[in-house]
Structure prediction request, 483 residues.
Amino acid sequence: MNQLTVIVLAAGGGTRMKSKTMKVLHPIAGRTMIGHVLAAARETEPERIVAVVGHQREEVAAHIQELEPGAVLAVQDEQLGTGHAVRMAVEALGEVGGTVLVAYGDTPLLEGRSLRDFAAEHEAAQHAVSILSGIVDDPFGYGRVLRNEEGDVEAIVEEKDATPAQREVREINSGILAFDAEFLLGALPRIGNDNAKGEYYLTDVVAIAREDGLTVGAFPIADVMQTEGVNDRAQLARMGAEMNRRIVEGWMREGVTVMDPATTWIDADVSLEPDVTILPGVQLLGATVIAEDAVVGPDCTLKDCEIGAGARVVRTHGELAVIGAGANVGPFSYLRPGTTLGAGGKIGGFVETKNATIGDGAKVPHLSYVGDAEIGEGTNIGAGTIFANYDGVRKHRTKVGRQARTASNNTFVAPVEIGDGAATGAGTVVRRDVPPGALAVSSGPQRNLEGWALSKRAGTPQAEAAEQALADRRDGEQGMAES
Ligand code: UD1
Ligand code: CA
Prediction:
């Protein structure tokens, strides 16, 4: 293939989004719209990628530079039309040769393969210009591809400039065009703006090529949705659902069981191994990775998480958490960034974790907060334990050793360390380190103030219940004595 340059147009305002965020920066499947387009452009292995920015150029340019540091940025101050935008791109490039592809930044479903195949067709046919066209039922709003009796492409006419007969044409310009660079350079200055919109139409280069006796091709894409642009929020949702449908189906083909594709949302950068099972109501976001035989769901949101082989995650909200092989999480667990659970470990119901490393086989089964902690392998943390990491000013760490057994309703006041094989009593507030193997008890001996309810709560249902029970007990004792 020839040297390839991809120009991505993203200067338009996208006013119909009615958003303070630029249209191409809206996310779909965990990437921005332009992020998807840049990924597709990258797959063509181009020499250079040029992005044309205009509206909110600082934000858009910064985002593009983050995703594609090598990209050339061209600024189009005023949106005078696609032809003008491409001219800005060409000027920013300096010199251009080979093949130039033009795409838009708002077509998130576009696949690299389609761009590559189109460029290859264009080059094989040695056309001056090629159009990635589409045959659609409702061509309204699109530029129409006009062909002569022989079927050769003569021109593209925009909706507003078309005659009624031309509007009947159902072959449309998707917007993705391929050019012989040398021809493009010569043609761009020849584009005028004498048309319904008063814009410099890039599409006019088709007629210019024909005037020069050069050939133009139009290659209809079978999957027209790939070239569909997003203009408003309703379209954003529709395209998002379509992209998700494609991603979910792709993973099913790779051996993932998805019980309910309609309620399963998987971002573009998620990675799943065969024999993963996804139950209904699951969102897998960001760069989440799930290993084989893991079962996730129902009702989980996992962002940038790593789930080990055979792990089980139920009704869990997790972000930046690593779950070991064969571990159990949920239901109703909240895994905050920095949570690491070892192989075969457990984070149970109503447990919140943050910056917590929980060792292999270690368990935090019930109703706990574990923040800024390290828990050794095989240790069991009792129900209702709070790792008190915050003194109101600073955060501190707690370390619990291996094979420790801490009892229910404990508070570990950080910084504090509980040794290997140590234990605690119920309700212990651990303020000082517990040596290995020791039992820590902090609550005092229990005292029972007999008859307290009768004297202090006289006349209440509590006192009545106590009175009744004491009377029953006396009767019972009397009966025993008489028999
Ligand atoms: C354009 C095509 C039309 C095609 C349609 C496909 C032209 C003249 N028309 O029409 O044939 O069927 O796309 O969707 O090319 N942009 C800039 N700077 C500008 C103008 C536009 O960067 O000065 C960018 C926009 O941000 C957008 C893209 O180019 O991403 C298309 O612009 P838009 O105005 O939407 O073109 P259409 O009228 O839809
Ligand atoms: Ca458009």
About this structure: The pocket of uridine-diphosphate-N-acetylglucosamine (ligand 1) is lined by residues 9-12, 52, 76, 79-82, 84-85, 104-106, 142-143, 156, 158, 172-175, 201-203, 229 (CB under 6 Å). The chain has a mean pLDDT of 97. The CA atoms of residues 24 and 33 lie 5 Å apart. The radius of gyration is 33 Å.
